[in-house]
Specification:
- Helices cover about 15% and strands about 25% of the residues.
- The protein contains 6 helices and 15 strands.
- Bound molecules: calcium ion (2 copies).
Length: about 270
């Protein structure tokens, strides 16, 4: 009986505490020392920014090229944009990565990037041709840096089947120095990043690559029951079942050329 009474007392105490706590948050029953609502500072104005799509109005009209049915893994990615002030006028210019399709690539591919110069009043002009950015292929990504420390930002474009390095000559004119620099790579390069990994004052280049894809011998959609099906549904093959490709690290030698050093630096 004593034990039962203790439990009852405990329940009563707990109920009382709960009731007191609830009373403190009941509207209109504010605690004595709280600030009256009229004197409280108003809630801060909303800080969520609003955006307007001005792409068409600004002249940014290039279409990203892709295959809607995506029957092959190489068709399932690419695209993106980069920012560069290619003429050092203080206004950012825009690089769009264009993409391609299996059929178009077999026929020579597409311009890997489109460069838009920012003019006055948020208007942009397509200057790809006059800028000399003429390499065709299958663009996947872009990275911008001044790799030769001449004060002008240069462009590196990744793509399936080969990448491109464009040296900025000034005033948004570029020279294709891919072969001279030795950074063409090849394979299925998806992304790239510049960074001075050995802190010698010259930016080096890291290139990430994906899986091995032979454009002349593509794995057929839905063909392999292990790698081209998802819960019984026929899908594009990969990345499972496809051999991976290694990433690359190009060391900047400072004379306009690079050396691929990824294997030298990897500990086995
Ligand atoms: Ca500019
Ligand atoms: Ca430069």
């Amino acid at each position: 009986m004593r034990a039962l009474l203790s439990v009852w007392k405990f329940s009563l105490s707990l109920g009382l505490l709960t009731a007191i706590a609830l009373a403190q948050v009941v509207p209109g029953k504010a605690p004595k020392n709280s600030v009256p609502q009229a004197l409280q500072a108003p809630p801060p104005a909303t800080s969520v920014p609003k955006f307007e799509d001005i792409g068409q109005k600004a002249g940014l009209t290039v279409a990203h090229i892709s295959s809607p049915d995506k029957r092959y893994i190489v068709e399932s990615m690419s695209g993106g944009v980069g920012l560069i002030d290619c003429d050092n006028d203080g206004k950012l210019d825009i690089i769009a990565v264009n993409g391609s399709t299996v059929q178009r690539y077999r026929e020579g591919g597409d311009l890997m990037i489109t460069l838009y110069h920012q003019d006055e009043n948020l208007k942009f002009t397509d200057i790809t041709k006059s800028a000399g950015l003429s390499r065709k292929g299958w663009g996947m990504g872009v990275a911008v840096a001044d790799y030769d420390n001449d004060g002008l930002q240069d462009i590196y474009v990744t793509g399936y089947g080969g990448n491109a390095l464009y040296h900025n000559l000034g005033n948004c004119k570029f020279e294709d120095v891919t072969d001279k620099a030795g950074v063409g790579a090849g394979g299925f390069s998806t992304g790239a990043a510049w960074g001075d990994y050995d802190r010698d004052g010259k930016v080096d280049l890291f290139v990430s690559r994906y899986v091995h894809v032979d454009i002349d011998n593509l794995p057929q959609f839905g063909n392999d029951p292990r790698f081209c099906r998802f819960k019984g549904v026929l899908v594009q093959c990969g990345p499972w079942g496809l051999p991976g490709e290694s990433d690359l690290l190009f060391h900047n030698k400072g004379d306009g050329t690079f050396e691929e050093v990824s294997k030298n630096l990897c500990s086995q």
